[in-house]
Specification:
single chain; 8-stranded mixed beta sheet
Length: 242
């Protein structure tokens, strides 16, 4: 699994705009895989790839389209021969699947290299025992060995950190929106009061004191604010999310 950049023939990025990575991996589907092939076929040999369905839908990529993958060893062209759909919640990343031999050669520089190896325990062998046996065979500290639970915990922490960044960014934009909204409201009511100077002066001439005039203006502002908030909240909740 490697971070890459993928562009189409118009040199436009084919990847998330949220800051999530674009990952190139080898096509090796098991019972634990988070995607399944739903259109086309699997990649075979050099120059073929499978793209995840969410990215294909957003970027308008179809089977038969050509893409350029920019990896650390160099750039290479691929043809999209299949579309894979997530079987779980989409983490937000874009996934490009390559033939296993091609993935090692194009992404790591040699066919005998790998960034990770998945080992499945025989029936009755706990994950902790399997981890101990592998560590004894390879040597302590030679490789980072993690069980499925440890890997899931690490992935959860990484996803949580990414979501925290998004959350704080959204809170920042929300704060800016509140400040701008407050400024617009104050400015709007200042203009309204200035336009109603004669009307308010007439009320004073008819015997209304300063407190009554101020109360009427504030009451109008509160009613307008409540009405606008209610309509805005109802529109926001009822707006289709798709």
């Amino acid at each position: 699994m490697e971070n890459v950049t993928v562009v189409d023939d118009r040199n436009e990025s084919v990847g998330p705009t949220t800051g999530a990575p674009t990952l190139a991996v080898d096509w090796h589907v098991t019972e634990r895989s988070v995607v399944e092939l739903t259109s086309g076929r699997t990649p075979r040999g050099d120059g073929e790839a499978v793209l995840d369905a969410d990215t294909a839908d957003v970027k308008g990529v179809e089977i038969g389209d050509a893409l350029t993958v920019q990896a650390q060893p160099g750039s290479f062209r691929v043809e999209v021969v299949g579309i894979a759909t997530f079987t779980t919640t989409n983490p937000g990343a874009a996934l490009v699947f390559l033939d296993p031999d091609m993935a090692a050669t194009r992404l790591l520089g040699a066919a005998d290299r790998a960034t990770s190896v998945s080992v499945e325990a025989a029936p009755g062998v706990p994950d902790a025992e399997l981890k101990r046996r592998i560590a004894a065979e390879l040597g302590a500290g030679a490789y980072e060995i993690r069980t499925a639970d440890e890997l899931a915990e690490t992935a959860s922490e990484e996803l949580g950190a990414f979501l925290d960044v998004i959350k704080y960014a959204m809170l920042g934009f929300a704060g800016i929106a509140v400040l701008v909204g407050a400024f617009l409201i104050v400015n709007t009511f200042s203009m309204l009061i200035a336009q109603r100077t004669r009307e308010l002066g007439l009320l004073r001439a008819l015997g209304a004191d300063r407190r009554q005039v101020r109360r009427s203006v504030l009451t109008e502002a509160v009613l307008l604010g409540l009405a606008g908030s209610t309509v805005g909240l109802a529109a926001g909740v009822g707006w289709p999310s798709g």
